[in-house]
From TrEMBL:
PANTHER family: NADH DEHYDROGENASE [UBIQUINONE] 1 ALPHA SUBCOMPLEX SUBUNIT 9, MITOCHONDRIAL (PTHR12126:SF11), NADH-UBIQUINONE OXIDOREDUCTASE 39 KDA SUBUNIT-RELATED (PTHR12126). Coiled coil: none annotated. It comes from the Eukaryota. This is NAD-dependent epimerase/dehydratase domain-containing protein.
C-alpha cells in the first residue's frame, strides 16, 4: 500500500510539472516556415533542447562543416550527416545530444542515397568542395554536378531552405577553373531551386585552416612574395552566420559575402604569425609558371594532396568584394578582427622560452640563447 501511495504522489507531481511546462510555452517557441509549416521548439536552448528543425549538412566533416554541425547540434537541431568514409565522421557524434547527430552513408553518384539524406530535412547545406582535382572527380564534377543533384533532390522533396556555400571571387570569367565552376554551381542551384541562399566566405582562419597552417609549415611556398591580398575571417563567425541565415527565412534567395573587417597580404599575415609565435617563419617565393607545372605533374603522380596548377593560379588573385551582396551586418553580426584570435592558433608553436613579448629581431634571440639553455 505504501508503494502505491508513493507512486500516486510521484504521478501527481509529474502531471503538475507537465502542466507548468505547458503553461510556460509562449509564442516565441513557435515559428512558421516559408511553406507555412509550424515548427515548435522546446527546452531552454542547450544540448537537450530541440529546435524542431532537421538539417542536412553535406561536407560536414570538412573544415567549415564540423563547426556548423556543432553550432546546430549544440542547441538541439537534428542533423543528418551524409558521409563517404567511416573514420572521418566519428568525431561529429559528440557535438550533439543522443539522437541529434545522425549519419547516412552516401555516394553523390547514387541518387537514392542522396534522397535518403535529404527527404526528412527542413534545411540543407551544401559545403562539398575540393581545392584540387583527382583522377575520379574534376572541378565540374565536385562543384557543378554535385550541386545540381542536391538541388534537384531539395526541389523534389520540397525542402524549406537550401544554402549553397560557394567561394569568394567566384566569377564566370575568372582565370581559375575552381572559381568559374563555383560561380556556375551558384547559377545551377538558383535555376533549380530559386530560393537558394548563396554564401561566399573569405579565406577562413581556424584550427585546421589552410592560411595560418600553411605559413607555420615548412616549406611555405608562395608566389609573388606573398603579395596576394585577402580578407581573412574566423571560421567560427562563418559557422554562426550560416546558422543564422538558415533559421532566418528573410535571407532566402539572397547572396551573402562573409569577409573579415581588414585586408592583409599573405606576407602581412606571416609577419603577424611571427609576432605571436616569437619565431621566424621562412617563406619561399617561386615563379608562377614552373610552380604550376610542377604541382600539376605531381598531383597526378602522388596520392596525397599537394596542390595543383589551378591552386597556384588562385595564389595570384587578389580578393575582391561584391558590394551588392549582403554581409555580416545584414544578419546583425560583426566579424572578429584577425589580431583578436590569431594568437590562439599560433602560440602552441612558439619557439622562445620567454612568451610574453616578441623579440625585436632574430639577432636578439640569438644573443639570449648565449645565456639561456633550452632543452626540447
Amino acid at each position: 500500500m505504501l508503494f502505491l501511495a508513493q507512486s500516486r504522489v510521484q504521478l501527481q507531481s509529474l502531471h503538475r510539472n507537465a502542466a507548468l511546462f505547458a503553461a510556460s510555452r509562449g509564442v516565441a517557441d513557435l515559428a512558421i516556415t516559408l511553406s507555412g509549416k509550424p515548427v515548435i521548439s522546446s527546452g531552454t536552448g542547450g544540448r537537450s533542447s530541440r529546435t524542431g528543425r532537421v538539417a542536412t549538412v553535406f561536407g560536414a566533416n570538412g573544415f567549415l562543416g564540423r563547426y556548423l554541425v556543432s553550432k546546430l547540434a549544440r542547441q538541439g537541431t537534428v542533423v543528418m550527416v551524409p558521409y563517404r568514409e567511416e573514420m572521418r565522421k566519428r568525431f561529429l557524434k559528440v557535438t550533439g545530444d543522443l539522437g541529434v547527430v545522425n549519419f547516412i552513408e552516401f555516394d553523390i553518384r547514387n541518387m537514392d542515397s542522396v534522397e535518403e539524406a535529404v527527404k526528412n530535412s527542413d534545411i540543407v547545406f551544401n559545403l562539398i568542395g575540393r581545392n584540387y582535382e583527382t583522377k575520379l572527380f574534376n572541378f565540374n564534377d565536385v562543384n557543378v554536378e554535385t550541386t545540381r543533384r542536391i538541388a534537384e533532390t531539395c526541389a523534389k522533396f520540397n525542402v524549406e531552405r537550401f544554402v549553397q556555400v560557394s567561394s569568394h571571387d567566384a566569377s564566370p570569367d575568372s582565370p581559375s577553373a575552381f572559381l568559374r565552376t563555383k560561380f556556375e554551381a551558384e547559377q545551377v542551384a538558383r535555376e533549380i531551386f530559386p530560393l537558394t541562399t548563396i554564401v561566399r566566405p573569405s579565406p577562413m582562419v581556424g584550427q585546421e585552416d589552410k592560411v595560418v597552417r600553411k605559413i607555420i609549415a615548412w616549406p611555405n611556398i608562395v608566389v609573388n612574395n606573398g603579395a596576394q591580398v585577402i580578407r581573412p575571417v574566423h571560421v567560427m563567425d562563418v559557422a554562426a552566420a550560416l546558422k543564422k541565415i538558415a533559421f532566418d527565412d528573410s535571407t532566402a534567395g539572397k547572396t551573402f559575402e562573409l569577409y573579415g573587417p581588414d585586408e592583409y597580404s599573405l606576407d602581412d599575415i606571416r609577419r603577424l604569425c611571427e609576432y605571436e609565435g616569437l619565431i621566424r617563419y621562412s617563406q619561399i617565393s617561386v615563379p608562377k609558371a614552373p610552380y604550376a607545372w610542377l604541382t600539376d605533374k605531381l598531383n597526378k603522380l602522388i596520392w596525397w594532396p599537394i596542390g595543383c596548377a589551378d591552386e597556384v593560379e588562385r595564389m595570384t588573385i587578389d580578393q575582391t568584394v561584391d558590394k551588392s551582396a549582403a554581409t555580416f551586418a545584414d544578419i546583425g553580426m560583426a566579424p572578429a578582427k584577425l589580431r583578436e584570435y590569431l594568437g590562439g592558433y599560433v602560440r602552441p608553436w612558439r619557439g622562445n622560452l620567454f612568451q610574453d613579448v616578441a623579440p625585436d629581431s632574430i639577432q636578439e634571440r640569438k644573443r639570449e640563447r648565449e645565456f639561456i639553455h633550452i632543452t626540447r
